[in-house]
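Fold tokens
===========
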Amino acid sequence: MGEKVKGNLVIIGGAEDKSGESGILKDVVFMAGGAKARLMVLTTATEKPQEVGQVYREVFTRLGVNEINILNIENRDQANDPENSRKILEATAIFFTGGDQLRITSILGGTQAYKALMDANQKGISIIGTSAGASVMSSTMIVDGNSNDPARKCTLMMAPGLGLLEQAIIDQHFAQRGRIGRLLCGVAENPYILGVGIDEDTAIKVYPDARFEVIGTNSVMVIDGRTIKSSNVSELQPEELLCINNATLHVLTKGYGFDMKDRKVLKLH
């Protein structure tokens, strides 16, 4: 973890403040280069790219960005267009909007645009994602699962993500949609990875050394599966309830962070 990813990541739990103080998006602008930023807003996840793109254009313009490029790659032919790869590589930061994370991976996966994204991150370009754009950051992503429901074996669906964040799975809109059960199920099935649940208007800034910092107004839950002593996940029949023994849970707010290599909470301020 942390050896392959060179650029910073900002992973937002969705519903970030766009009209008030906009603290998270101000951080995004700063990381992108402020007024000199060349910010790419990638709308692949949404089925309303013009509407969503315009929202972010207005927000980032208000926050002082002069050059904003809205790029809607909506099929694999466009994802293999060299012109779109060039645009990605010229950006100082790339912002994935919300929508459906499977649209991102199914349209971009294995294409020239995907390669450009990986190359950009290796060169130190910050990549940001909100909601579905957050889930897609990890090597394995949650694509479906029950909210506000106890953990059950066959209610969780996972798929390969973009692989920008290793050995972790991300869930978003976390407390607001009651998603602790499905994240616990994901960790029980893959106890070597970290489960990271991010609330709305909250984000983690992930640095190249695999430390992250919590920003925003709510909380982040980290579930460490390495301490699990036993679970019944391999014995369950469909829809049966999950039982886990000795999982480690951390709840972090602004001013705290987490070392994903050493699995330690960090007090930052």
In short: Residues 49-62 form the longest helix (14 residues). Residues 50 and 72 are 8 Å apart (CA to CA). The chain has a mean pLDDT of 93. DSSP finds eight helices and 17 strands in the chain.
